[in-house]
Design goal:
39% strand; 353 residues; single chain; 15 strands; alpha+beta; extended
Amino acid sequence: MADMAFTCASCGAQLEYAPGTKAMKCPYCGHENPIAASPWSAVAEIDYATGLAEAERSAATETVPVITCKRCAAAFQLDPAIQASRCPFCGTPIVLESRAVTHLRPGAVLPFGFDAKAARSKYEAWLSGLWFAPNDVKRLAKTDNGFIGMYVPYWTYDAATTSDYTGQRGVTYTRVVQDGDKTRTETEIRWTPCSGTVSRDFDDVLVVASQSLPQAYLDRLEPWDLTELAGYDPNYLRGFGAQTYQLGLADGFEAAKQKMDGVIRRDVCDDIGGDRQTIASLRTAYDAVTFKHVLLPVWLNSFRYGGKGYSFVINGRTGKVQGQRPWSWVKIGLAVLAALVAVVVFSMLYGKH
């Protein structure tokens, strides 16, 4: 049965979100319904410091039908308008059987900036630039229609940190050494113990809550224009998929701490000063911790080649592409052979001069 809240007032078809706009659009007659503005600034930060259980209880939840891939365990929603026959994460054929899942309701969404046609163009351009890719893989890109726009779940964390440290400051100096009739200079480091405290406020430390895609590829899709986040509205999901988070709130905060730790250590080294620094101990207190659950737009494509799955991800705002790729060992072998021939020819021509 059609959802009347998403029904076109002109022709009765189901409306879909139009990427790059703030409107729902009918794919048949072009009629548009504007999406009511819900500014990101109005999205409340949820207190984490009061305790994980209380934080989760205070957050809004929703129950949604999700499909679970039996191969990669990805759990995701698909809009009824999407006729998917394979998992958008690993390419495995799927049976569209859904089950109800209750999870923390997203607080904000970053809408898609371009449509599937534009995603295909960016994908083909990326593939055409790959050296030593099999030719049939590039042909596959031109015939495959499996692009799915998927909202990927992320956590963001804010925290006020105070870090106490101990360490050593190293200052380099040179000294003159007499070696018989000759002299030489040597560079040495003078170490002195030190300790101190550094503070830093973190805002929107981003942690991907999906484990169905290679983390390195998702990380390389950054940065995201989080200033354009809109308050969560199901209208933005019409015509797209949305994945359920696989990394929980507590584990997400541990991952955020690791990101913060790298910045804190740089602050400590700056505070120590000198030419070299070592950190012997570091203890950080996290205060005023809050979190948000957000959905970010990613175009997905995956296929199986030579019995192996390959996944591609495209930033749904910037068009940046990251992905796995197969290699053509024939092309690599020919390139190596050509290089060896070039070396031999060069040696024959110039080796005797």
